[in-house]
Amino acid sequence: MWHADETSSKIDPFRDFHGEEASAAFDAQGGARQPYAPIVEVIRDCSKSDLCQRQKRLNHAVEELGLQFSDVTSSRSSANPWRLDLFPLSLNAAEWQRIASGVVQRALAFNAYAQDLYSEQQILRERVIPHDLALRDPAFLRPLSGIEVPYGEYSQFGAFDLVDAGEGDWRVVENHMGAPFGLSHVLQNRRILSQVFPELYERVGVAPVAGFSTYLLEMLRAQSSRANPHILLLTSGQPGQAYFEEAFIARHMGISIAQPGDLLVRESRVFLKTIRGLEPVDVIYRRVESSALDPIAVPNANAFGLPGLINAWRQGNIAIVNAPGAGVSDNRALLRYSDRIVGQYRNESPILRSVETFHLSDIDQRDYVQEHADQLVLKPMQDHDMLWQLCGGRPGKSAASLLHIAKQHPEYFVAQAIPEPAKIPQYRDGEFTARGGYLRVYYILGKEPIVLPGGMVQQKVIGHRTRRLTIATDGLKDVWVPDSMVQDTAPKRQPAKTGERFSISSRVAESLYWAGRYLERAENTSRQFHTLERLRWDQMAHAEQRTYWPLLQAVATATGQSEVTKRKRPPRDTLPFSRSLLLDGNKGASVRACIRSARNSLDRVREVISPECREVLEDISLYLNVEGKRKLNRARLTELCAHIVSELARFNGTAERTMPHDDTWQFFRIGIFFERAVGVLAVLKVAMPRLVEAYHEVDEESADLTALLRLLGSLDAYRREFRSRAYVDRICSLILQSKHVPSSVNFCLRNLDYAISTLSYNGERALGSDLSEQIRSLLQVLAIFPLAQSPMDEVDWLDAGEIQPKSMHHTAEFVGEAFEGLAKQVEALHGRLEDIFFSHQDVFAREPTLFAME
Questions:
Q1: Where is the DUF403 domain (predicted)?
Q2: 306 Cβ partners below 8 Å, 6+ apart?
Q3: Which of 12, 67, 144, 584 has its CA 20 to 30 A from that of 546?
Q4: At 740, is the secondary structure helix, strand, or coil?
């Protein structure tokens, strides 16, 4: 046993475990048990400061990835944090073999129960379990009875929560066979801990977990006879505890996420509404309750599902995993009879027994629960929306609220006598303390069932006796299984055909489009205010302020502050206005609001956004949240603008480097270039009329015109192009017609046209070809725009600086009308984009493209 001598500077981090009663990791004498010995040895070699630093790195990695639990009734601001602990749970070979065998046995038995309940109900005829326990279950949906499920596998992917009652006596606390949660946490926990503390994994052969998502994908592919089936993950689209989970799994499996509104049923087939019309779907991996799938088959006033989905499933035209109705196996009241269920369907003794469970509908059991309430955990029999509808609403956060509902509706509640979990070390606040935990183990059924070699440990919450283990947690742990216990049981399939791809949904395309617009708007505003603030408004004379006032008004108008445009005189100090437009989250066009809107748009499509992009956006959001609470002076505000411009450039660079340049990338770019063109014209249509009106030919250098070029990020480009002082017509020529200047309208429209042209494939007619024609017509309008007509081709370039500006021949009213008309033509492109790709008010709504099916 490790000890510190008098000369040692190290203190045993597990000294508090010496002499205590035996735990999962240490015996009664304080010695590390066999599976934990290498872990304890590595940790003892670390100093206290090293361990603290590693835990900080774990926490930082979690924050960067935006990982969190979210209660389905909570806001994101009150979300439970995701805490990952340094010390893993380690299982020896014999212990894991028993757990894995018990998980497969139980999964097969409860699958058979679900099949029986929806068909002959033999278990009820033989009175193996009480009738009301099964038939009163809110998850039991009678309209689904009689539907044949292939191989009787209702729950092909599920999980069980286990508790170690001591000495490796693992008991089942809950079944999760309807829509299991937490696989992403398992994979991320392993990845993060192995990066932060690689020494732990160097001395132990730990079974890998990363391949489990591949097995899950292969299982989904096997549900269809097609070589390359179209697989979707179906989600409700509402924020909840699966917020991060679904995007992570979809990204790892390379499948799309769909909401019920993204789909429709036609002729008993399910189709996804995509940017190319309707595309057939073969397999749905559902992450919503069965009762919320189809409002026709299962009427539910609080559910918005897909009408006709169950009928398509009944006819075998769509595979749904897990099968609708699988949630009956999650009934916690069944745990009291789990030994009977295993015996009924497997004719075997249970390998894993359930914790003692009481159903409150039974008078005798209810009396026992009342007498021992302080020793039991109260739970609803199902975590199901229908249950709370039957009970008149969800409980509040207090234990008394749940207890009150349980007294009113005892038939829907159970109580469990959960053993005190075996203690394992938890690192918190610089020291290790003994804390119990619950193990969640995952399985995949098929010809050769697979059990995830490991799982997830949720630390016990002290004093917590009234809420689900799936939500309440005081920390997570990685789970280790010896790699010698793992065999490659992945199903063997032929490789998918190459050259096939599926279109993105219209909702995904629209979210990316708006994310691009919001981020570009935030960058424009930050950069333009940075330019204006560097002019030092507070040190200008009044006459000089009047010179630059049109530029500030133009920026304000471009960001939706129309009241500033109406002011005839400039304010004495623009700092309050600048601070508001940068950091006021209540102003829709402020930088902070734009970043928040972009983040919300990308949150809805996290499966197509790279983790690196997500990290950058989280950094920007956290930065703005901190700065928004400070009272900023002008110098600090200037630094803030520069920082945001730099960070948004980092985001765009990261996106370009890490995101596939497919349809998702093109719609993000479409949003960027459209917003840039609109933003430039919004500035010009306000600034140009006033600059023309105030323009004096005798000026040696027009400071306001030079500032306008800085504002549009084009001063250097102007100098390289014209090598002269600023003239109105040459500025218009550069900003409207240049093919090479990123801020020019011509440049933006050409990039829009290119992005749209990439949306066709297989030699088919380009999508939005009429939109491309509209863009080309706009390019012709730019080519003959009156203010940009300069006789440059008629003279030598070296003498160009002496030419009189043609803008002198136009009135301010004419200039304003010209830019207003041009801006409206460009803005009209948004309507066409929406009709063709998002709302499908164009030809795809009348003549949907149904791709040929194999």
A1: 505-789
A2: 260, 263, 264, 265, 270, 293, 294
A3: 584
A4: coil
